[in-house]
Amino acid sequence: MAAADHQSPGLPASVATSAGSLVQLRYAARELSLFPRKPPRAQIAGGYQSRFRGRGMDFDEVRPYQPGDDRRSIDWRVTARTQQPHTKVYREERERPVILVVDLRQSMFFGSRKCKSVSACEVAAALAWAGLSAGDRVGGLIFSPTHEQDIRARNSHHSVLQIIKSLAETSAALVSRQPDQHTLANIFEHARRVAHPGSTLVVISDFHDFNRDCESQLFELGRHCDLTLCRISDALDRELPPAGLYPVNDGHDRFTLDARKPEQRKVYHLKYQQQTAYLEKSATALGAGYLNIHNDQNPIHTLAQVYGTRNRKRRRQ
After folding, report:
1. DSSP assignments along 39-92, one per residue
2. pLDDT digits (tens, 9 = 90+) for 129-148
3. Which domains does the chain have, with CATH numbers?
């Protein structure tokens, strides 16, 4: 795919992203170190340790001998010292597939300054470039209101450009306001069928419908994959606008939002806080990473604060 612009004519950058702008994020992604920049030791071996143990390159531990262990792996020094047979265990190195699960349903077509879908596409593109730079195989699961696109994980520029093309086209198509046919739980269920053990999954969404069914699906994913939940939130998700009457249009119906009542404003903010606490607690329980990106800020700057190579150097000093 050429780096052509797939943004629909007439749509401003705050409403729908373009392939060209996502391609340009390749340069900003050089400052991200979400994935350690460790060159593979051989053409068939990746730079990441898998959860599968075998006779690989890296020593893992010494443990008591078990029936069936290869006798060539016996650690004779530890055996002599303890008078009990012990075996060396090695951890096999494999490439780590990075799967970007991007939620571009209708709730993401919303924002005070720009749509959350635009920020989600920017985050996904930056992480795709960062993964490719680290030598990972990068793939994507991109969900629109009506369908999903599965882009196979590969260590190639073509795979990243496929992801970018899909992001741009799906972002622009949200303007048609088609009703959602997926729930977040459905998205996680589909990810379970696609993700292989040892994969790294980054879920990019506003998580507005995160519930117990989602927790169950994430638990199964987390048993075999490394998870990071990247939440895109807007100022209007957190707080109602200043007190007043506002005409609101959801693409089909029009109504008036009364933001003058203090109690209503309090309940609105409390609901956001409760959902945030629930999501953070679930991420902690699952051992998943959690990152909240504010839509009214530059998402790449936020990623750089957390994963930037310069930021890591400062912390080490």
Report:
1. --SBTTB-SEEEEEEEEEEEEEEEEE--TT--GGGB-HHHHHHHTS-EEEEEEE
2. 998 988 889 999 999 999 99
3. 19-37+97-316 (3.40.50.410), 48-94 (no CATH)
